[in-house]
Amino acid sequence: MVGKVFKSALFQKCVVHLKRNMLNRVRHTDKVELGEDLKKVFVVGDPSYTKEQAIKNFNKTMIKWSKYSSYFKNVLNNVNIVNYFTYLEFDYRIHNMIYTTNWIENLNKQFRKVLKIRNSMPSEESILLLLSKVAIDKVFKYNNYPIYNFRFDKKLFEFN
User: Fold this and answer.
1) Residues 88, 14: one domain?
2) Cα separation of 33 and 61, whole Å?
3) Does residue 2 lie within any of the structural domains?
C-alpha cells in the first residue's frame, strides 16, 4: 500500500519475522544450524556487506534448506527477498535499528488498544489528536534512552 502512494520510498520487511517463521519450520535439533546460516545471510554492522552478497547468501541457504522442507523452496521462489535487505542501503552503523519492523507493529498495537476502549469519537480530528498523543507519549518514553549509534554523525547536530 505504501509503495503505491510513495513510489520512490524504500520498503523494509521485518527480518525478525522471516527468521522466526523459518525457525518454526525445522526440527528443534536443526534450529541452531539454521540460525547460524541465517546470521550469515542477515549481517548487520558490516560496512563491506552488500545487498548482492546478502541475496546470494540467502539463495544458497534456501537451496540448502529446501532439501529439508518445501517451505524453503516456496520462500526461494515466491518471496520478494530484496525487501528484506533494504537496510543494507543505509549506513552500516544503523542497520540494527531498521532491519526489523517490531517498533511499528508495537505502535499499531498501542493505537488499537487506545481506540478499542473508546466506543465513539466526535470527529476524525479527535481520533488523529488521540493517536498523536499516543505516538508522542511513546517517543518521550523511548527518548529517555540516548541512541549512541548516532554520535558518529556530526551533521545531525549542525544547524543550517
Assistant:
1) yes
2) 11
3) no
Cell numbers for 45: 554492522
Query: What is the domain extent for residue 137?
Result: 102-157
Query: Are 65 and 131 members of one domain?
Result: no
Q: How far is CA 41 from CA 46, 52, 57, 135, in A?
A: 12, 11, 5, 33
36 and 80 co-located in one domain? yes
Number of H helices, E strands in the chain: 8, 0
Triad 16, 1, 93: Cα angle to 5°: 40
pLDDT, one tens digit per residue, over 105-157 is 778 888 888 888 887 778 888 888 888 888 888 776 655 555 555 555 555 55
Q: Is the domain of 131 the same as that of 76?
A: no
Contact criterion met (CB below 8 Å) for 82 and 55: yes
List the grid coordinates of 84: 528484506
Q: What pLDDT, in 10s, does the model give residues 75-96? A: 888 878 888 999 999 888 888 8
Q: How many domains does the chain have?
A: 2
The answer to whether the CB of 102 falls within 8 A of the CB of 47 is no
Task: Look up cell 498495537; give the residue.
Answer: 109
